[in-house]
Amino acid sequence: MPTDIRPTTGQEALELLKAGNARYVDSLTSTDEYMQRRPELVKDQNPLAIILGCSDARVPVEIVFDQGLGDLFVIRVAGNVVAPSQIGSIEFAAEAFGTQLVVVLGHSKCGAVTACVETLINPEQNYSPNLQSIVDRIRPSVYNLHELATANGQDVDADELVDRSIRANVRMSVCQLKHGSRALEDLTNSGQLLVVGAEYDLETGKVRFLDS
User: Fold this and answer.
1) Domain count, the chain
2) Are 87 and 175 spatial neighbours (Cβ–Cβ below 8 Å)?
């Protein structure tokens, strides 16, 4: 049960999570179909889709797609970037469970993409090495858009650049998954795996699936 009361310390946040889990355990005896599936998932899982999404707290994947326990194999990382650990996780799900769909899910007002755009507009912007590694993975999808935006010497519309960059970043991640893994490429070429991109709109709640 979500609450509008926000914790002011880490310990208070921990207590909220403990209380939430206690409510969840109590609900397991309900007759709700959502909960009745849990026992069968203890031994195995059979997700219908693999989702590579952003870590943003405003994009809860199972809720966005109205799916229940065991329905989605979810990998979340800031900026929905592709790195070896994400590729390995997707390879595992595709091969172990035979899941035939991967969705790279970006979203409006993405903080990681915004950070990348800010470094291009303001090269003096500094981030920690670990955050910079995420920005660097996003940079190739944003750089050409920034160059085009500045080619005529006019000021860059940062909001528009972020919006376009979010979709460009999703498409780049889709391409990296299709061609950055021999296992995934083979599955894709044989028609056993579909990899698509999508963008979630924070304001409307709608998911727009992107053309390749």
Assistant:
1) 1
2) no
- CATH of residue 77: 3.40.1050.10
- The DSSP symbol for 78 reads G
Residue 8 to residue 26: CA distance in whole angstroms: 27
| Distance from C-alpha of 208 to C-alpha of 201, rounded to nearest angstrom | 8
Mean pLDDT of 159-178: 94
Q: Quick one: what percent of the chain has pLDDT higher than 70?
A: 88
What is the rounded distance in angstroms from the CA atom of residue 211 to the CA atom of residue 173?
13
Contact status, residue 209 vs residue 197, Cβ threshold 8 Å: yes
Q: How far is CA 6 from CA 11, 13, 14, 60, 174, in A?
A: 12, 8, 12, 18, 36
Strand partners, 101: 194
The crossing angle, in degrees rounded to 10, of helices 158-179 and 84-97 is 50
| pLDDT of amino acid 33 | 64
Q: The tokens of 185 are what? A: 């490429």
Phi, psi of 76 (to 5 degrees): -125, 130
Question: What is the model's pLDDT at position 80?
Answer: 97
